[in-house]
Recover the amino acids of this structure.
């Protein structure tokens, strides 16, 4: 019984020795591999760790939000001047671009209060389409403002007086008399500083009370651009 036990113990000791030899071999092999490949692997590992750390560094986000659409102050529908000043509001610090008939005419920087201005801007005769657009420091271009049409008109309005005629004489029950004629649709017409309606076809008529003797009738027609035509006729009234 003791001999069998001793034999078993010896067998276990042999197995343990084999296992120890295997472990020693594996350790030596591992050390050899580490010695041969360890330095490049270490460098690659260091680079990988560096890239990972850089990925953790927060990246500054680029501004991709465009500025809001700027607004222009009032511009006249019509003018008899070939030059106008254009002012308005936009986001502070943005570059405001002025477009006339589709062409980028000028640029202006909105100040700290958001005000921008373009002085002495030239307009061609006829209709001019005007709008502004803003871009920020990142070249984000915002929406354009509302387009405004400005008409340059330097022609005075037509003014024809069909009745009365100059030097006409009126008597007794002729008073008041009828003044009639034709002007330009939309014109502001006055007779002796009293407003007279101009119809859609340009015609007008009004009643005028006369005084004894000569009566001067002052007709004045002014269009939307500010051009004015004046005519004066004199008639006589005898009660």
């Amino acid at each position: 019984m003791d001999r069998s036990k001793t034999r078993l113990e010896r067998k276990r000791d042999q197995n343990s020795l084999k296992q120890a030899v295997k472990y020693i071999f594996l350790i030596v092999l591992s050390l050899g591999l580490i010695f041969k490949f360890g330095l490049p692997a270490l460098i690659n590992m260091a680079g990988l760790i560096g890239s990972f750390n850089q990925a953790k560094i927060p990246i500054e986000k680029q501004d991709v939000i465009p500025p809001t659409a700027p607004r222009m102050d009032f511009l006249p529908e019509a003018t008899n001047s070939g030059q106008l000043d254009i002012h308005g509001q936009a986001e502070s610090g943005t570059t405001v671009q002025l477009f006339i008939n589709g062409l980028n005419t000028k640029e202006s920087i909105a100040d700290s209060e958001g005000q921008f201005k373009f002085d002495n801007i030239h307009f061609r005769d006829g209709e001019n389409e005007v709008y502004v657009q803003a871009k920020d420091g990142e070249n984000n271009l915002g929406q354009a403002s509302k387009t405004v049409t400005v008409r340059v008109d330097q022609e005075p309005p037509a003014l024809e007086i069909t009745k009365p005629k100059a030097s006409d004489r009126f008597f007794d029950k002729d008073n008041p008399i009828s003044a009639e004629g034709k002007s330009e649709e939309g014109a502001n017409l006055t007779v002796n500083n009293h407003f007279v309606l101009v119809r859609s076809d340009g015609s007008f008529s009004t009643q005028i009370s006369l005084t004894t003797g000569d009566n001067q009738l002052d007709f004045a027609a002014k269009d939307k651009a500010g051009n004015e035509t004046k005519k004066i006729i004199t008639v006589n009234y005898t009660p």
User: Anything to note?
Assistant: Residues 1-5 have pLDDT under 50 and may be disordered. Residues 160-238 form a domain with the Immunoglobulin-like fold (CATH 2.60.40.10). The first strand starts at residue 71 and ends at 72.
